[in-house]
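ERR on first pass: missing label on line 2. Operator R.T. fixed the label and resubmitted. Corrected input:
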Amino acid sequence: MMLRIDALRAIYPGLERRIVVTIMGAVSAELQSLGHRPGFFYLLHSMGLASSMGLGISLLRPELQVVVLDGDGSILMNLGALTTMARYRPRNLVHVVFDNESLLSVGGFPTATATGTDIAGMAAAAGIPRTSTVRTVAEFTAAFEEALRANELTTLVAKVEAKGPRSFLTDLPMLENRFQFQRHLRDVRAGRG
Amino acid sequence: MEQRPPKPQAGVFHEDVEAVMPVSVKNSQLIYEALKACGITLVSALPETWLVHLIQMAEDDPQMILVRLAKEEEGVGISAGAHLAGAKSAMLLQNHGFLQSVNGIVSLARLYRIPLLMLISYRGELGEPDPWQTEGGGVTEPVLRALDIPYERLEEPAHVAHRIKKAQTLAESSLKPVALLLTRDLMWEE
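pass 2 clean. output:
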């Protein structure tokens, strides 16, 4: 099975120019370890709301391509978000779910995906037009690039190992990230991004 | 925006509600116009009786993005995204939906300094006939105070425009949540 850091490294060049909203914990720390960009926002709490934030941005800024890097524990806390995303179906939103079947950052307790809950299946049943589950870096990279080209709302579930970095703390303060991200969204509108 | 939700079939539900539930159209209009005057371009909402006209006004307005939610806390995320993306938004929710959203309000809106304008229908106060609404009525203001969220009650039609403008101004300047309580006297015509 793939490591999330390898999956992130594989798609990193495609993320650099896009608006990215991540969840807390390993996803945030690993993406920052590859290189922070002003268009990356790391939601370090509020589990479940990264997808809702991505939906808000994508509805208001249809000219931008938005990528949400979600996790199984987070989306399981906000399953209604799948139905809301499906209802409005923004074409500029790619929703990636790293599924390690675990609440890794709070001790590695198994989530319901460890006992068979199928997030891509739930997303499809909610009405999200493109969904798939991938298990290798090669499959993930291909599916992610296809999702960016598809011009249609996609939930892409990447099964990854329950392994992450030693620490989830980074040297980027939350509010610095928040204001930099907001300025970036303003500047790309003004054509300065 | 790519897609709007399906319109209610021939407005059947809407008309039914109007016939049996005397929610004030006039005061809903006042509230909606005040939101428009503040430059609100996105409204998230979880449908409830007192909000029926407000939600319909947002639905019918081609300049407004209406996001119908499955659960209210989603609206905190959507408003946070909207703010960072450069737009003004508001949440329309019942007080029980506010209680449901507390973690998002604390660990997104407050933690990340997001202005959040919440219009909360205030069920369970004096005059409430539905037993199931009464517990939420009693704890709404204590929870707002515990969360240090500035709020005002909207009771008089004459106060609506001014108080909504003031709430929006404080939310934007403080970068924090601010709430307005839509009371029975304003919303209900009995």
